[in-house]
Design brief:
24% strand, Chemotaxis protein chec, 7-stranded antiparallel sheet, 48% helix, 6 helices
Amino acid sequence: MKDWSELELDALAEAFNVGVGSAAAVLSRMVGSEVVLSVPELKVVDKAAALESFGVAGSDRVCAVVQPYGGAFESRALLMFTEAKSYDLVRAVVPAHMAGMQMGDMAQDALTEVGNLVLDACLTAVGDLLACALTTRVPYLVKGEAAEVMAQMEGREMMLLHMLFAIADRNIDGYVGFLLDQQAMEALKQAVARFLNAHL
């Protein structure tokens, strides 16, 4: 993002900060516990470097909810957990009598719904703040070794928002990333420029 000014980067980070705050509120209501977020770190990296930023090795098993979206620009957002943390999250949001469930169809549906709600809240808030319509599509779950999961994502680079979703009494964390091609990146930059022109 070397062609972005510091002001543009700050504005974009703030836009996503608002979105992540909205997403945290959704997750808090779902699990009945406070969700603590790290301060977003915004950067563009290749997919291998993204895994390093996520703190996972290519051979680590992960679950990722992928949310395609369109509108002002086409892209995909993903919410990724290690496989063990995804089990913990499912157990946090399903009824107590199902707490021992494994990652079967019902658990996968529950995790996909969590990802859908969290990513939709984030994307809606970002779209509202930047006054650009972003429409979400049907999310889907991918799981397997982290390198294999990342290889399924189109494009070579991703805009990585390094954020920690930590549920206070459960120690569950995940990471959010946005896969943007050059056209989508330019559209996003134009939206940020319009936002700054309207508010400065």
